[in-house]
Amino acid sequence: MPEPISPPADAAVPDANTANTTVNTTALQRFATLTREALHQGACQQVLLVAYQGGVPAIEEQGQGLQRVMVRPIALRGQPHLSFLLRFPTKDITKNLPQGEGLALIGQWLADGAFRNAHLFTATEEVQLAISKKGKASVRVGKLAGVAGGATSGAAASGAAGEDAPEPALAHNRDKHRLLELSRPFLRELGVTDAHGQIIPAMSRKWKQINKFIEVFSSAVARSSLAERRALHVVDFGSGKGYLTFAVHDWLRNTMGRDARVTGVELREDLVKLCQRVIGKLKLPGMDYEQGDVRHYHPADLDVVIALHACDIATDHAIHLGVRAGAEIILCSPCCHKEVRPQLLSPHPLRPILQHGIHQAQEAEMLTDGLRAMLLDAAGYDTQVFEFISLEHTNKNKMILAVKRRQPKDNAEVVRQIHDIKAFYGLQRQCLEELLKADGVLPA
Ligand SMILES: C[S@@+](CC[C@H](N)C(=O)[O-])C[C@H]1O[C@@H](n2cnc3c(N)ncnc32)[C@H](O)[C@@H]1O
After folding, report:
1. Rounded to whole angstroms, how far apart are CA atoms 382 and 379?
2. Which of 269, 291, 311 should be mutated for ligand 1, with most atoms under 8 A from CB?
3. What is the mean pLDDT of residues 282-286?
4. Mean pLDDT on 103-128
């Protein structure tokens, strides 16, 4: 592959105050600092450079029509690097640079006015740098849509609030800073958007759910060892009509430039055919949809397990499959908690509370998902249970997120706690526990 880009001769992070440029420098400095800090904290997911203005010979040599440059942190031979993906209409060109050189190159391009917009994405924030035609630049920091604390927060810094400075969209349009773009073709094929790329009103909740899910997913990837890898395989069990499956594929490949394989596994033949037809029509690389039952599925390899709204113990089977395959991330949103409730005793002094059917159902749900989280902890995962989208959007709103620990931890204490909780409620069996015991992951 020809050398598409090369860092400036003095490969230090440029001090924007001394850069030889017509672009206002305070905002550049601010953007460079925020990017460097995010990288050092391990929080940086991507830097996106858009609205190429021309004038960089090394880019021009590669062809016309550069659409965007996606930059993401990687580790090469244990050293921090930046992977640059230059997207042209008919090809992608990738180049990896040591982190310092990569930062210097970004700083140089921006100081030269080669791009009008730059975006720094972390799991929770987007920092936007906008450069006007006259070289005036401004920086805004906004919370990503759906992240607790509101969709946007105030401007962090403004290098030039000049009248011709382009106004970043953060404060004005929530959709503009979602991680997915409404114009993506899969949204049209799945009936989320219409022919003009507008949300079909009945699908607005689904759109929010998809975006929130991608936010959670992106933050999990950033925390896992997958952050340092380019290739990964995601399997979505009980993938239904594929809203999340296609969204994950699109985010990984199109937004993040990852070499991702994404497989949907679904019981219903009609849904499998529908999704296969969309994959064929859009010619999506690295994506497939299979008819299968999570209870008997044996993947060759996988890195991420997703199981959203897989009914009852299908969630346990999906988690188990992920643990057995050594998945780095297991993400599930359980529903239909049928297994535990009939076994549930009403132990003293909870009897007066659990005499009500609704409380029994709530207790059974909390118990089931609490035990799943503890079992994942015992199996070597850092696990969180949280509400992933507010109740106004769907009543299936709980997420269990497990990221594989890098260092092993003694599980004796959590195994004892699981035993005590089961004894307290008189539980005889829990599907995930039985599956993990049968595998020898937990003591019999
Ligand atoms: C409520 S839908 C959720 C679809 C999708 N995950 C979402 O959140 O949009 C549950 C899906 O799981 C599928 N399913 C149920 N049991 C399954 C199993 N044992 N193996 C594979 N798929 C299953 C159902 O056919 C259904 O399409």
Report:
1. 9
2. 311
3. 96
4. 89
